[in-house]
Amino acid sequence: MGYFPDWTAFQPEQVDFARFDWVDFAFAVPASPTSLTWDDPIHAPGLLLRLVAAAHVAGKKAKLSVGGWSGSKHFSAILATAATRTEFVAAVVRVYAAYGVDGVEFDWEYPGEEGNSGNGVRPGDSADFLAFLQLLRASLPAGAVITAATQSTPFAGADGSPMGDVSAFAAVLDWILVMNYDVWGSSPTPGPNAPLYDRCHNSTQPAASALAAYTQWTAAGFPAAQMVLGIPAYGYISKSAATHLVQRRSAPPRPSRPTVYFRNGDGNKPLVYAADVAAQGSVADVVDVVVADGEGDDGGQIMFGELVVQGALVRQDPPPPQSGTQPQPVGYISGPGFTRIWDECSSTPFLVSAPPNSTAATPSTSQVITYDDPQSLWMKATFARRVGMLGVNMFDVHGDSAEWDLVDAARMGMGLPAVVDAPGGGAGAA
Q1: Which of 91, 98, 368, 377 has its CA 20 to 30 A from that of 248?
Q2: Rounded distance, CA 159 to CA 167, Å?
């Protein structure tokens, strides 16, 4: 599974549906009880129609994702009464039918918690959300899929704490997607973006990992077979001299979506902190610069494929598997000017750059790039398979390498067969 964002130059026809069973279109935004708008009202409707058509031609399926980090402002008010819930169900059913999607995902960030600044929030949010989902289930066709994107902890109850019993949600949702990313963003003391677990047992936020999410949701009555693990195709650039990742975090999780999206076709212009990875211009020209071309920034995010294109990562094919052994995912080593380090506590890699013109006498701050690669995503997918999860879902499809190495590693971890590319095939940032 994967997300298709409406804010990049990546086209629906570039999605390799041989590698995906489901693709989620991001995002439609709740505007009122009677209407949904779009992240990009000019292009999104046409892109969604094309994505659905491409999926169906390939025998695969497409869902519409509703909400997102910056699109969850009105959920609480819209679902607050029986009357407005009924109106919103009708609005969702209209969009479902108009675009021919196979299902709808609700990415409310978050019921009972504010999430993005300015979001509406009420103690009864989760109860209202459940009532809405039950009504929607009764109103959509029998084959329609309804899912939700969630935090690593169960929905908040009226007291603000994670609910101890979410089995009623399992009865109405086909599955949940646990957003196991953005645990730590850009920071002078960087930490892992998407930890598999807290192996070192030293995190002040032990609830924020793939293992913790599985444990917390299943303990609250949500079956593992109805859980999908969210995995990232991006990382974060930090201005830091760190040589290890911090496992402690006292702040809430960062947004699971950038709050500013690029509309000019380049969805990946990160903050630039050193001369090794650049958003634009020559390497020599870009030192300690924030992109200032009117497009804003994306909080230091950078796509995996862009790390490859810019030379921070170098692809290495694995040796052919020997008889009786499992094939291994493609490897990536650090490019010139970088050192790749494996964080044992979270089972994720990170890069440390050699800062330009740095000496022992005059040290300067380097870059630290926290990210996931085929090795770490293979481990996450293997974990998901072994604990009985339904699958994994990558945010997002345009962030991979040209060879789809992240997706292929995740498929390998899930025990799915390899995909043989047609001549000239490929995608990602290249």
Answers
A1: 377
A2: 18
Nearest to 343 by CA among 368, 318, 308, 317: 368
> At a CB cut-off of 8 Å and minimum separation 6, what does 325 contact?
none
Q: pTM for the whole thing?
A: 0.86
Helix (H, G, I), strand (E, B) or coil at 415: coil
Mean of the per-residue pLDDT values of the chain: 84
Distance CA(185)–CA(341), nearest Å, equals: 18
Nearest to 190 by CA among 307, 335, 311, 348: 348
Q: State the pLDDT at residue 260.
A: 26
In whole angstroms, what is the distance from residue 258 CA to residue 271 CA? 13
Is the model more confident about 371 or about 191?
371
d(CA 63, CA 25): 6
Residue ranges of domains in the chain: 2-232+373-413
Q: Which of 429, 389, 369 is nearest to 405 (CA)?
A: 429
Dist CA 392 CA 3 (whole Å): 11
Q: How many whole angstroms separate alpha carbon 289 and alpha carbon 301? A: 14
Residue 249 has pLDDT above 70, yes or no: no
CATH placement of domain 2-232+373-413 = 3.20.20.80
Closest CA to 72 of 121, 123, 126: 121
Across the range 204-229, mean pLDDT stands at 95
Answer for the pair 375, 250: CB distance below 8 angstroms, yes or no. no
